[in-house]
Structures are given as structure tokens and as C-alpha cells.
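Predict the holo structure. Ligand: S-adenosylmethionine.
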Amino acid sequence: MRRLRVIGVGMGPQHVTAEAAAALRSVDHVLAFAKADDDPLLDVRTAICREYGDPPVVVIEDPQRDRDDPADYPAAVRAWHEARVASYAAALREHPGDVGLLVWGDPSLYDSTLRLVDALAERVELDVDVVPGISAPQLLAARHRIVLHEVGRPVHVTTGRRLRKAVAQGQDNIVVMLNRTLDLDDLEDWTIWWGANLGTTSEALVAGRVGDVRADIDAARARVRAEAGWVMDVYLLRRPS
Ligand SMILES: C[S@@+](CC[C@H](N)C(=O)[O-])C[C@H]1O[C@@H](n2cnc3c(N)ncnc32)[C@H](O)[C@@H]1O
């Protein structure tokens, strides 16, 4: 049966584990979605493949997602996922052999690859395995030399969109991903450990009391975006004790 290997690659070639490197060397092709000709993450994926066995990268144009109507967000995401599954199925037909799908960070956090693969496996017979990678919150913790929670306490991982809900629920340690903007109003006394474009040459870090470092974060975010042409950030917020 054809193998389909879902491979977490962290934030670049330096994070590729020995297991992920072996998986890359074992496949006949890597399938990669690209948003545009100059998708910066596609360049990173290509660089990773070059370094680890150089499997050919089959670039698939990412189907457009309707972002104009947030009220119908779940339907828009569903339609986008269906279009992506159809694109994968077509690419598999055109490219026989074992296939790797590279996942930014780790497939277990805010990544739809495994859901797409489940849908794909209903159409095509596949032997699927997953190789874990280093995810953005792990790298954030390492860069700031912190544990994401106090001794024996929980940590809550959520999106920028749902931050207010987590605060209202009483969560004390909140890791926030997928931030379109930073909404930190009324959280001045919380402590933040923030990082953008972690693991890349434009990496930026800021930590401190939100009220004291808010302007530094805004400035760093703008600087990173100007330098790299894109910005992805993640942060830990801790409630004042
Ligand atoms: C679609 S999710 C993918 C997460 C990924 N699967 C992981 O394990 O980290 C993308 C979000 O992850 C975070 N992220 C990914 N790469 C990052 C990086 N290099 N620096 C900071 N945050 C990053 C950001 O919050 C971004 O909006």
C-alpha cells in the first residue's frame, strides 16, 4: 500500500529531527500547498527537502479561501478543506509512490493536515503515519527559558479570536496562536512572553508586564513584518497572582 507520511518539520531545517529526516529520505515526493509564487513558507519547505534527501517537491496551488464573511467562517473553512482534499487526490493520482506532507511545527496544533488526510484516506487507500515536530509554543518557551505554567498548574492553548473567552473562564496561563492583531486591552497587569517568526532570521522576542511592553511588541511586530514580509507570532499570558 502507498505510504503517506505526515512530517512535522518545526520552524526550519535546524528543527528537523533524525526521525523526520529519515522520513523525508524515504518518500518519492513531497506535496506542498503554496499560496502564491512567493510563499515564504514554501521556500523553507523546499530548503528542508534539499537538505534531507532532496525528494522532488510537487507544488499544488492552494485553493482560495473565502475570508470576507466571518459569520460563515465554519462553512468557508469546510469548503476550503474539501477543495484541498480534491487537490491532494489529484496530485496523488499524478505522482505515484510514497508521499510526504510537510507540516509547519507539529501536526497536532492548529494544523488541518491530519483532518485532510482522514478525508483523503476515504478516497485513496493509504498507509498513514505521523512524525512529530517542534511546535511554536515549544520554541517560544525555549527562547524565553520558561515553563509554560507554574508547578503542577495547567496551560490553556487557544487562538487570538478566543482569548477573551479564556480570560473570562479564569484561565491563568494562556498560550495564544493565530493572531491577526494583538488585543491586549485591559490585560495591563498580566505578564507576557511574546515571540514572532521564531527560528528564522527575523525572530523577535519581548517579555514583561503587558502595560510596560505593549508598545515594544507593536513596534517589534511591525519591524518583523517589514523585514521578512510576513509575521507569525505566539505568546504566553500569565494572570497576575
Ligand atoms: C496554522 S498555526 C500552525 C502551528 C504549528 N502547527 C505549530 O505546531 O506550531 C500557525 C500559528 O502558529 C504560530 N507560529 C507558527 N510558526 C511560528 C513562528 N515561527 N514564530 C511564532 N509563531 C509561530 C503562530 O501563532 C501562527 O499564527
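The chain has two domains: 3-131, 136-238. Residues 3-131 form a domain with the Cobalt-precorrin-4 Transmethylase; domain 1 fold (CATH 3.40.1010.10).
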